[in-house]
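Re: the 129-residue chain
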Amino acid sequence: MVAITEFQKIGIGLMGFSLFFLLFGVLLYFDSVLLAFGNILFLSGLTFIIGFRRTALFFFQRHKFRGSFFFLGGVSLVLCRWPIIGILVESYGFVLLFRSFFPMALGFVLSAVNIPFLNAFVSSSSSMV
């Protein structure tokens, strides 16, 4: 079993608060202050969970440069009080950064929750026949 350090527990809490602020920032018609606070909490939570060096290595890998550019550019646009454009740019960067993670997460969710409709849909779409 993997031991979770105190810094990682703090990081998980920061990530939870960041999701809360991002959700309410979007629900309250793209309130730039809530979105900016959510972005800052997300980046600090990620840093607490995986460490400063691994966070920097994650964002500045050569093959993830475009995703990092759009994600951090979107964060800076939100901080400059352009929330709608910033969230769109940030979302595009998020998809580029984590696109290799999405199939693994979907497989985990489908294995954890046995939903026949989704299993039939995913298994039929992955077939090459």
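The helical segments are 6-27, 32-50, 52-59, 65-79, 83-97, 102-112, 116-125.
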